[in-house]
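Margin note from the TA: students keep mixing up input and output lines. Inputs are the sequences; the output is the structure of the whole complex. Example:
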Amino acid sequence: MRTDKTEVTNKNAGKASGNNNSYNINKQSIGKQTVKFTNPPAIVSRACIVGQMEGEGPLSSFYDQIEPDPTFGMNSWEEGESEMVRRAIQTAISKSGLSKDDIRYILGGDLLGQLIGTTFGVKGFDIPLFGLYGACSTCGEGLSLAAMLVAAGYADNALAVTSSHYGSAEKQFRFPLEYGNQRPLSATWTVTGSGAFVVSSTTDINIMSGYPKISAVTTGKIVDYGVVDNMNMGAIMAPAAADVIYQCLEDLSMKPDDFDKIITGDLGKVGSEILIKLLRDNNVEIGDKHMDCGVEIFDCEKQDTHSGGSGCGCCAVTLAGYILHNVENGTWKKILFVPTGALLSTVSYNEGQTIPGIAHALIIEA
Amino acid sequence: MRTDKTEVTNKNAGKASGNNNSYNINKQSIGKQTVKFTNPPAIVSRACIVGQMEGEGPLSSFYDQIEPDPTFGMNSWEEGESEMVRRAIQTAISKSGLSKDDIRYILGGDLLGQLIGTTFGVKGFDIPLFGLYGACSTCGEGLSLAAMLVAAGYADNALAVTSSHYGSAEKQFRFPLEYGNQRPLSATWTVTGSGAFVVSSTTDINIMSGYPKISAVTTGKIVDYGVVDNMNMGAIMAPAAADVIYQCLEDLSMKPDDFDKIITGDLGKVGSEILIKLLRDNNVEIGDKHMDCGVEIFDCEKQDTHSGGSGCGCCAVTLAGYILHNVENGTWKKILFVPTGALLSTVSYNEGQTIPGIAHALIIEA
């Protein structure tokens, strides 16, 4: 482990005494991949909009809106996904008590080529946009960057948003729904849902307490175990999740017992087993702390979703609903939230390439 | 214009006197969309790898590598694009004198669905990745975020990389090359090229001088004038470029004469005319300062590239080569660099949606 922290402390000390013009750099990088915030930003508002099937799942009571129309009143799945994004952003801003002019940045992305779910969902808000792609890890990427920009003082408030839609995703990545193909038990079910979060500075005394805070982020690398099965996304993402969880614990000198829950994005049942085993092989035991949003979001037996839910929306709506509810009411005081992505493209896949994975980790505290 | 700056100064003053535990937030946001860095990060290294046609253009002497093989020794255009990304990163790191372990983040993206150009290009480097999508504005998005993360102290060094490839882009967005379709004069030619930049903190005395610095960034919003012609990308992007240039000048109380050049990404000839007219209608005259990378990169008459070059790689390789050469040798002391993106997707386009634009602006100083 690199000892950046010490090195930096010395560097700052020298600066402070030697040069009055130098500004006091807010150095918070720790270890190889982690940033621990001196002044953690808060998630002051959250919204989740889902489709009918998600609304029939076990977490139904935690959603802001359940929409029975798969096109959300629009003309296509893609336009429906954008409408879902628009509603999530609108709801999150409304619940925050802020106006859209108070939001300095949107950090958003989705699974579709050129991020059309996000583009047409955010365009009416007239807010500066950083478009992101990290497959189903995008929720972690967006929240990480939102927290980093807010903690650095570039914004008082930033909004992170992600979405996925079963119809638009299956059409793009696998088969047209009309084809009615068979799905293996390792396959996951893309969640129709969008989650949005307003991340705010806590230097303003009015919002210093009561909200969940993002206290650290560990940014993931691409991890490629050479898997080429697009019906087994859990196996693709599990090594990336293991890698970023291991590094987060290492960078912060923490252990799984320091958390009430370690929550992955959409590994599903198959991927979750692989994750636990991979970490166990590296002497990290998370078995009793681990939960996966993909496993929780559907009743996989009754709803016939096989290995579980997936998609950018899966962990985003689970965080915006069930998870942050439990953090806010004190059930969980500190969690490690790890959205996981499989960087699947039909073009590279059909050209015989592997499907690499990536995952980002955030520590969220009550 | 909001007066965030004053408000923030007061807030910090109150904090500093009232609470010893509060940390000195590095508040640099100005106006609606701009961040001006107290301690501007430097571009300490830059690399540009291009294809044969770019190598035959007027800027050929500024490129690091000109590769005659359109697949860069690989099996497909897409794999070739990734190889180009890999070489750009490798070259930029080598030229910086750093090792890959010194690079804390890669901020990268390209035009292809799910960013496969970037994914397979960066995966061997084992560096934490933020995947970005802003169409051809991605170079501006990546450099903006790299500068923000470095200036905030989250990283000593971050690398921004973008790419585009004529073959893979035409295949994805328009027609297979084998089809040999006619192109209208408003059409641009996707540049085969990848540009990579190492952005470093200037708090270390050793790298404080001699390198171009990113002193401010203005983050763009989606601007949609309702254009639906995918053969006229310049007209799509010009309003977004006008919007972000206008806002940058407004936020910083600057005027075009404060810059030696105002350089847009890939508006081409058609889009450049629209940009100049749009700003003139708003009492901003940039005619004598304006330059467009898309116009410069090819000899449009001789090379039959119609309105000019385009693609993520167009402004990235022009910046990494010709532009920063002129900043480093003192020809241009201060420039406004404005990569422009058309958020084109064949899915939304074929469903009858418009093609919105986005642009991001950076001030780069000698």
